Amino acid sequence: MTTKLGDFENLRVSRLVYHLYRIIPSTMNFNPSLSQLPNPTTKRIAMRISAPAERALRLGHPWVFDQSITEQSHTGGPGELAVIFDDKRHFLAVGLYDPTSPIRVRVLQHRQSAAINAGWFQNKLAAATQLRVPLERTDTTGYRLVHGENDGLPGLVIDRYAETLVLKLYTPAWIPHLKEFCDALGQVSPAEHLILRLSRTLQKQAEFLHGLRDGMTLSLQTPPDLILFKENDLTFESDPIHGQKTGFFLDQRDNRARVEKLSKGKSVLNVFAYTGGFSVYAARGGAKKVVSVDISAPALEAAVRNMGHNKLTVPHETFAEDAFEVLAGMAAQKRIFDLVIIDPPMFAQNEKQIASALAAYRKLTGLGLGVLQTGGSLVQASCSSRVDADSFFESIQQSAREAGRKLTEIERTGHALDHPIGFKEGAYLKCLFAVAS
């Protein structure tokens, strides 16, 4: 790739206001490690991209891939602002540059220039907070506050658990902006504790972390090991440092509420139960018995505690074993349930894994139907963004036909309001509620 934009960069980028950074006092007190992070550079990368990438940007897509870049003024470091122009030298977008990722630019601002600073971060956080206001009416204190690209802050998510915020980064491009971002966060959505989580890829990039580490506390106050929060007036615990994701699967809140309404007087099997979210809702809904299956014994211990947090005394059996093996064993023993919930982890992390993921979903459907009462309800979900909704739902129906069962769909569901969808690839969660005859 050749560089041709040197003089053009100086002419055009200097006219933009991206070089202005200002500090806004925060209502939170932060770890001194934040103040030791490098300040964002005022130098900008001028960039042009291919015609297909330009069309995607005009439609609001938040990513620019490395192969889409046709001209670039200079090689930048993680966190430099890349300003993208069209072939007529008009501003298209500005975003965070990441030379370590195929997603070379994570777009912050489309079409109209703006100063990327604490004030800009405040506006984005305020918009995200406003979107989640309806949750206040549901006695819910655990929810996703920022859903990355879908809330206009690509490569970053924030989950709130009562007075603890968990900020997870997926790119080193956020590191130079972290202090300013946290200042804005303290203004818009302050909390007693702020915990930093880093993706597995980012944890390996120590040269860009400047001493930051996965699981460290960015606030002055150290949070408790286990955090209690509310979801639809139920109490759950989260372990944001050692647990999966940020400690809880917040995206299934609405589907858990739907399961509660289906559970009265039913025997319920919750497969891939993790810390028992669906199990607790089923118990409150009046289930006569709940069985939770997960490969993780510590997760199931948390599921038992979550039952206790809510003073639920429904018989609750746990199996810390492989879900496929447990389902097959239960079928052999002719154990039958009125309601079967199957909520597995992500099976497809890339295009090459889509076929195997669909095969796994079909197998789980068959195994689930093997222990489901005639007239019973099947709830099956997928969190694999690579698997589109139509393919997922068809895989379930195909497996049912092969098993000689008919599935009558009750409902197909997707994302809750705190997990908005801002672009095609942002849609990942899909769930089927059906009755099996």
Kindly list the characteristics that best describe this protein.
27% helix, 437 residues, alpha/beta
Summarize the structure.
With 437 residues, the chain is of the alpha/beta class.
Structural topology:
Blueprint: H1 6-13, H2 32-35, E1 44-49, H3 51-58, E2 63-65, E3 69-72, E4 81-85, E5 91-97, E6 103-110, H4 118-131, E7 142-147, E8 156-161, E9 164-169, H5 178-188, E10 193-198, H6 200-203, E11 227-231, E12 234-238, H7 253-262, E13 267-271, H8 277-284, E14 289-293, H9 297-309, E15 316-319, H10 323-332, E16 337-342, H11 354-369, E17 372-382, H12 389-402, E18 407-413, E19 430-436
Helix pairs in contact: 4-5, 7-8, 10-11, 11-12
Structural overview:
With 437 residues, the chain is α/β, with parallel strands linked by helices. The chain has 3 domains: 6-110, Archaeosine Trna-guanine Transglycosylase, Chain: A, domain 4, CATH 2.30.130; 118-227, Transcription Regulator spoIIAA, CATH 3.30.750.80; 249-436, Vaccinia Virus protein VP39 (Rossmann fold, 3-Layer(aba) Sandwich), CATH 3.40.50.150. 27% of the residues lie in helices and 26% in strands. The strands form 4 sheets. Strands 15-14-13-16-17-19-18 form a 7-stranded mixed beta sheet, sandwiched between helices. A 6-stranded mixed beta sheet has the order 2-6-5-4-1-3. Helix 11 crosses helix 12 (389-402). The longest helix has 16 residues, at 354-369. The protein is globular. The N and C termini lie far apart (60 Å).
